[in-house]
């Protein structure tokens, strides 16, 4: 009985991360690159938050949601980027058991909350374009606050489920994680027990969230496009312009006019973003590929927070005007 009890207790106190590369020359290049990316993410998203909070013109629900999206981008990138940048300079990349679990929880918490928030933003654009006369009554300040709160709660519940599924597993070694941060599938590989049921549960949990949010996004923009068929060319172009920025961001925590062509290309990237997310989490751990997972993780973990400020500032005349006045 005593032997069995010891076997069920994890004896791993720290983990060794394999990181992105073992080549010192390549590591120095990655260090400079990711340091630049992370600094741009922080400064760019902080600029969005400060501009929205200090400007009296950017008080619509779209900018309210955008400020929280920028905060989530900063938080999500901070979960992995500082540790990654530091590890590129050191030879032995270690992380404590508690730090690893905290990184796992925070990554899924902020990532899932961002997925929900992007879905909320799609709903907001759908109401704004399809029911402009009733928009202020439907999406008022109280509704906005509740939608943001629901996104945070949804992210917390999802993250708790993923974390508890991993924590209860006996990790008897080895303690090497074939990744640059702590995530579900790399940790499942270290468990000294059958993880098939846990892997399927993890995939199902992530799958329900990713696929349902993706369906809501597709339906929202399908409704927008159908609604635009009844409008004039000028009204159609104006409405499409308001949705293209959000579609681009979703892509990079998922016709007869130039605007139709732009919207279509952005929607293609939406499929690409959700495709990478689904490929990472909506699959059994037995199909886990460390090399592919690193690439996919960098795509949605670094590229999205990096491009959000560019998309929402350079493409938005109202925001640029407010920023200019603030400066």
From TrEMBL:
Main location: membrane
SUPFAM superfamilies referenced in this protein's UniProt entry, alphabetically: Family A G protein-coupled receptor-like
Cross-referenced PROSITE patterns: G_PROTEIN_RECEP_F1_1, G_PROTEIN_RECEP_F1_2
Entries under Pfam families matching the protein: 7tm_4 (PF13853)
Domain spans labelled G-protein coupled receptors family 1 profile: 44-312
Compartment list: Cell membrane
Keyword annotations of the record: Cell membrane, G-protein coupled receptor, Membrane, Olfaction, Receptor, Sensory transduction, Transducer, Transmembrane, Transmembrane helix
A Gene Ontology molecular function term of the record: G protein-coupled receptor activity
InterPro entries: GPCR_Rhodpsn (IPR000276), GPCR_Rhodpsn_7TM (IPR017452), Olfact_rcpt (IPR000725), Olfactory_Receptors (IPR050427)
Domain of life (superkingdom): Eukaryota
Membrane topology note: Multi-pass membrane protein
Gene Ontology cellular-component annotations: plasma membrane
Annotated TM spans: 29-50, 62-81, 101-123, 143-161, 208-228
Entry similarity comment: Belongs to the G-protein coupled receptor 1 family.
Protein name: Olfactory receptor
């Amino acid at each position: 009985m005593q032997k069995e009890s010891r076997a069920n207790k994890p004896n791993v106190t720290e983990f060794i991360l394999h990181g992105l590369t073992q080549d010192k020359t390549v590591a120095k290049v990655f260090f400079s690159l990711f340091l630049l990316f992370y600094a741009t993410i922080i400064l760019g998203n902080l600029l969005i938050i400060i501009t929205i909070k200090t400007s009296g013109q950017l008080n619509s629900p779209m900018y309210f949601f955008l400020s929280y999206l920028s905060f989530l981008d900063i938080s999500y990138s901070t979960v992995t980027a500082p540790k990654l940048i530091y590890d590129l300079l050191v030879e032995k990349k270690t992380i404590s058991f508690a730090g690893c679990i905290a990184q796992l929880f925070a990554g899924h918490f902020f990532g899932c909350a961002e997925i929900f928030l992007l879905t909320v933003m799609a709903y907001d654009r759908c109401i704004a374009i399809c029911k402009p006369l009733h928009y202020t009554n439907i999406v008022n300040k109280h509704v906005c606050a509740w939608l943001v709160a629901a996104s945070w709660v949804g992210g917390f519940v999802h993250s708790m489920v993923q974390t508890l599924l991993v924590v209860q597993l006996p990790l008897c070694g080895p303690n090497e994680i074939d990744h640059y941060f702590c995530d579900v599938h790399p940790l499942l590989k270290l468990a000294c027990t059958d993880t098939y049921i846990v892997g399927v549960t993890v995939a199902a949990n992530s799958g329900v969230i990713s696929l349902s949010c993706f369906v809501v996004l597709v339906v929202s923009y399908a409704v927008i496009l159908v609604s635009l068929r009844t409008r004039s060319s000028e009204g159609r172009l104006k409405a499409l312009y308001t949705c293209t920025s959000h579609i681009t961001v979703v892509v990079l925590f998922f016709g007869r006019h130039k605007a139709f062509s732009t919207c279509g290309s952005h929607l293609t990237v939406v499929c690409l973003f959700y495709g990478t997310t689904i490929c990472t989490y909506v699959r059994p751990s037995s199909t886990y590929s460390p090399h592919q997972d690193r690439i996919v993780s960098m795509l949605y973990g670094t590229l999205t927070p990096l491009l959000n400020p560019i998309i929402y500032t350079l493409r938005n005349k109202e925001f640029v005007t407010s920023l200019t006045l603030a400066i």
